Amino acid sequence: MDFSLLDRAKGLSLALLIMGGSPFLFASEQGTGPVDDSASRGKITITLLEKSDSGVQDSSQKITPLKILSEERNRYQESITGEKGEDSFMQIRMESNPLSDQNVIPVVAVNTNEKELYLTFDDGPINGTGNVLRVLEEEGVEASMFFVGRHVQKRPRLYNLCRRLPNIEVANHTYSHANGHYQRFYRDTYGVMSDVEHAQLVIGGRKYLRLAGRNVWRIPEVQRNDRAIASRQRKIEIDKYETIAREGFFIYGWDVEWHFDKSSGRPVGSPEELARTIEGIYRHGRSAQKGKVVLLAHDFMFRDPGSTAQLRKFIRLMRERGWKFRKIGEYSSRKPESLYVARYYRAGKLAAVQKSSVKKTGITSVSNHPELSKERIKRSAQTKSAKLSLQARLNDAVRHYKSEEVERILQMGARVNGKDEYGRTPINTAIKANGIYLVKRLLAHGANIHQKDGIGFTALQAARTYRRHEIENYLVHMALKQNHHESQNPKVIAAATESARRNPLKALALQ
């Protein structure tokens, strides 16, 4: 048994374990000449060649991190398929007796102890995404970005940049991120599927998914539920996970999270501490798959230069320790189908995408979807879908400042105080979009400033939360004006007099 070690070449370290008769040794013939099985009659010589269009490349040529990454990816692909890529620069020549010269035989030893780290960043594209992309490109490492559909629509330039980078995998992280209300979000199978499919239509690509606020796995190799939530809530949500998986989505969780400070959003703990945690998970086999560790981080953690430097330091530290960075699409040996047809979501122009699965009136039928029949739907699925999509169209028009479209949808029967499938009201949507003109138009149509949305905000509370000071002052003025008119109403005066007679202390406190 002979061992040969190929040391660092062009900044890369590669170990070759050559074992005679070992199942880990792959050899493929090139040419038509016979291969001599007796390696003892010759010697093994390892040569490094860098191929280019004009022959052997000059070693003084500059090598960028992305080029190094491309060469490393070719070797990784070779170790899986046994085929050499076009950019691969390693050849191992076996020279036997001069009387029987042999052809070049590429040999690859599969390292079963390779440590793979899957960097994943959630909630983008937001502030901090640009810093993350710059560090990943400069360091030449692969990573995955789980994008929120709503954020993609707000920052299309960052999204298009991620699509162009070869070391970045863009994946689905729902459309609304559950609006921060996870238990309510996962009660409705139709709502969850509609949200996930909406994001998939916006983001595109293969159906790689990470659920909002849930560490859930549904891939061929791993089936795991979130252990951090209560068992009662877990039982409610399991059928939603299964429905998503049946639609062809690969759901990925994480093995370790890089935590952040709740007030500042900056990373908690040093890169050295995080590296020790990952090494411990790898050493004790506590990851979802042996030898593979998935790290969860968030884009907003790296908004300032100090946090960005921590990310760069962590990447270099893990590379020094022998870790290989991979994209989430390489985690499983199988891939989801590339063809995508929405079965639940339909709104506006996107309805053309789902002709084969959804009728013009809504979902085909509840009987075709057993998971929907388990939900307590008070009205038929077709009626509910039509009303929800109308309210959703109204909110979309408000978000995009389309006043004429708002007027048209209101004339079609949309309710000015109605909520869409995510619990949003039109006036609160206009406040969040900072559209005071639309706020005035909605109030003219009878919008109630005391109406609460799904989060529990009235119009005035929403204006204060999102710091829309001009709208807040206008709403206060309207509330005072409304109270003044009510105070002149004889019925209101009589009711107030009766209340004061029954509870004088309460009336004194109100004064």
SSE map:
Elements: E1 25-27, E2 43-48, E3 51-52, E4 55-56, H1 65-81, E5 90-95, E6 107-109, E7 115-124, H2 129-139, E8 143-147, H3 149-154, H4 156-164, E9 168-172, H5 182-185, H6 189-203, E10 208-209, E11 217-218, E12 223-224, H7 231-246, E13 250-251, E14 256-257, H8 271-284, E15 292-298, H9 305-320, E16 323-326, E17 358-359, E18 362-363, H10 370-373, H11 381-399, H12 403-411, H13 426-432, H14 436-444, H15 459-465, H16 469-487, H17 490-502, H18 504-510
Helix pairs in contact: 2-9, 6-7, 8-9, 11-12, 11-13, 13-14, 15-16, 17-18
How would you sum up this structure, described in words?
This protein is of the alpha/beta class. Among the domains are: 25-109, no CATH class; 115-330, TIM Barrel. 40% of the residues lie in helices and 13% in strands. Strands 7, 8, 9, 14, 15 and 16 form a 6-stranded parallel sheet that branches. A two-stranded antiparallel ribbon has the order 1-6. A hairpin with a 2-residue loop joins strand 17 (358-359) and strand 18.
